[in-house]
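Q: Here's a chain of 98 amino acids. Please give me its 3D structure as tokens.
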Amino acid sequence: MRASTLPLTDEVLTVVRVLVWLIAFGAIGSALSHRLPRLLRRRSSLPIALAIIFSVHLFLCSLAPFDWQSQLGRELAAAILLMPGGIAMGALFPLGLH
């Protein structure tokens, strides 16, 4: 194996990276969770916000550089693609505990 492709082809390190990004974005979502109850009270803006977030996520998925040779580029692409799910996970978890 070539040393330049080893970190992203190793399954264990890939799982570790995904977990680290999800935990990091979950922490950001948890910090933002105190703002979420106010947003849920204004039900008219919630579907619009969800539609915008979902469409931006799909747009970013279509731009994902799966054929890039740059490790940094692939790492940043993975982080951007995991961001919406991690923030949603972190924002909804504290609300479920209350």
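Q: Can you summarize the key feature?
A: The chain has a mean pLDDT of 77.
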